[in-house]
Design goal:
100 residues; alpha+beta; 3 helices; 4 strands
Length: 100
């Protein structure tokens, strides 16, 4: 699957705070398609003020967006990752030892 096709699928994911799709809003900054994996870079850290309260308020929204991204993509792609484009924090897939 090409990056453009993945971006089109991600247009189905809505930011629950703004009611805009995450691609138009600019939350998806880059999609890298390699032979056996896809990496989707999101701009969460860059768009969240560095303040404990702001981070606490934004975390549930970010978690919801990631869950919705996974739902849209999991049947269409093999292995894929969702990674923050600034902090490089990996949101998906979860490490085996992490609990949900």
């Amino acid at each position: 699957m090409r990056a453009e096709e993945i971006l089109e699928l991600l247009r189905k994911v809505e930011n629950p705070f703004t009611n805009m799709d995450i691609v138009s809003e600019g939350l998806v900054s880059k999609v890298v398609v390699e032979e056996d994996r896809v990496t989707i870079y999101v701009a969460f850290a860059r768009n969240t003020p560095v303040h404990p309260f702001a981070m606490a308020v934004n975390w549930p929204l970010q978690a919801r967006i990631v869950r919705d991204m996974v739902k849209v993509l999991e049947d269409k792609l093999g292995y894929f990752e969702i990674v923050d484009d600034t902090s490089l924090q990996r949101y998906y897939p979860l490490d085996d030892e992490e609990e949900v």
